[in-house]
Amino acid sequence: MTEQKRASTPARPVIVVIHGPNLNLLGSREPHIYGRTSLGEIDGDLTSHGQNLGVAVETFQSNHEGALIDHVQQVSGKAAGLIVNAGGLTHTSVSLRDAIAAVKIPTVEVHLSNLYTREDFRHRSLLAPVCLGQIAGLGAIGYRLALDALARLVLGQRPGASSGRSDSFHLKSHVATSSKKGAAKK
Hints:
It is a single chain. The chain has six helices and five strands, in the order H-E-H-H-E-H-E-H-E-E-H. By secondary structure, it is of the alpha/beta class. The protein has one domain (13-154): Rossmann fold, CATH 3.40.50.9100. It has a five-stranded parallel beta sheet with strand order 2-1-3-4-5, sandwiched between helices.
């Protein structure tokens, strides 16, 4: 591509995907809960799917809470959207929650397993109240669904427009709710 053509091509919006502790072990860690898809496969699929959607996808994984917080802060002003699977930090990290709230980037929380069918301590997400929505329990496809939603949001497309449907679908959703004690509330 020539410099002149490159300069006239608008930059694609960037969606940043942040994976928390132990997600580097996907594919081998408790596959009966998290599936057999590796983190590399998830990231590769998101990058490819993002290109088809018209967005760039950048991924980051760390087992360290401070590194995740630093990364959220570093993408402020660059990222048009965030997809966050904070793993176990979902239930404990006020600091990560505060970082997401501070950067004001549209964020979708993703979990491979259904938090509300697992141990009681997993039923409460500290991140959910500062996210647009939460996708849980759908395995690796949950990341792709989050990317679809954020791409539509940042590209200014009306959801359902490409399919020709006229139903009213609202991207900004309320936090997932559960009747179980300690679950996230609206």
